[in-house]
Amino acid sequence: MNNQQSNQYPHYQVIIVGGGQAGLSVSYYLQKLDISHIVFEKNRVAHSWRNDRWDSFCLVTPNWQCRLPDFPYQGDDPQGFMLKDEIVEFVEAFAEKINAPLNEGVAVTRVRRGKQGWLEVTTSVGEFTADHLVVATGGYDIPIVPDYAHSLPKHIAQVHSVNYRNPQQLPEGEVLVVGSGQSGVQIMEDLHLAGRKVHLAVGSAPRSPRLYRGRETTEWLYDLGFYNLTVDKHPLGDAVCHKTNHYLSGRSGGHEIDLRKFALQGVRLYGSMNSINGTMLEFKPDLTRNLDEADEVYVRIREEIDRYIAENNIDAPEEPAFEKLWEWKSESGPVRIDADAAGITSIVWAIGFRPDYSWIELPAFDGKGHPRFRRGVSNAEGLYFIGLPWLNTWGSGRFLGIAEDAQYLAGVIHDKLEAVQSQTCTSRRPAVA
């Protein structure tokens, strides 16, 4: 710790907010650069993995992608998929190895620019100042539930995916899962395998193969360089940061998810949720489009792999052409059902989260509250972000890309501190007569 003159509060060169894998990775590189810092974690290390996931949760990316700085996956199943408790153990082991200056149970409630130019940081244990602050809290702060959900009668239970744990948690009866991103489809499958009758409101999320032409698809995509694709080179530009991830599963050794297959097994599919009025549920007439567009992405991924195999003369087994298992009859208008008549007694909302950066009082956000940055470096001097999707590459926000992002930010901070130190030394140097 470096207390500076005219500053009544403890001062650090860097304060890191968030003690998950992203914040700890930044700490690892700051320690190597001998930069004074402290990590504030509101709860415990790996809290979100431990407390905000359902019981059967597992990663959708294989274990070989679980890499933190100088801390690769060390188990005996690189092609497997870590379960929730194994993820917690992995992150905790990394925290123990690097021995970060971690303070658990400390909430950061306010960040603002001080009179001296430092960042003033208010926490649950007092005030601090810093030259730089790294936000490593993720972007999953506020569970999204639409306003119209309030009109649902109280006898129909509602739970957001962040609070879903297992099928036994929900009352007897049929369940509507709203949302077909990674959480939605995996919770749907969890309920379906438990013998529950499930209804699914299908959104616009894309899907991906799990295995293709003799290899796990993520291995092909890694060789193709997809995980190193930077946001500035993506055809969608910054808009890709807000796109939903492809859905598939790591459950039971990993498999792809074809919603048409689940429909044949009894899962009732609808389009996107549109509104609720009492027990009346209304869905948009977009199921056909959403299923088809998800399949189109699925096929494009296969075609990219086919092209790579052909261009590199790789000996790989052939696969039959894609065929739809089942064709949905096009809707002529909104679909309406009565929840009571359908036997639906609970709804699981799996439509995502909103970030909450209201505690940061700096001009660093767009009109929707999303941070503005390049490679995690904010336009607000001294402020940085890490652990977000597409921070720089498709691998950002995953275990696979955290080390590179953390090392880059630590280097930027180091260079800025060195520049300030050099300017200070120059200004104090006596003039030559």
From TrEMBL:
MF annotations from Gene Ontology: flavin adenine dinucleotide binding; monooxygenase activity
Pfam families: Pyr_redox_3
Signal peptide positions on this chain: none
Keyword field contains Oxidoreductase: yes
Keyword field: Oxidoreductase
Domain of life: Bacteria
The protein's name in its UniProt record: Putative flavoprotein involved in K+ transport
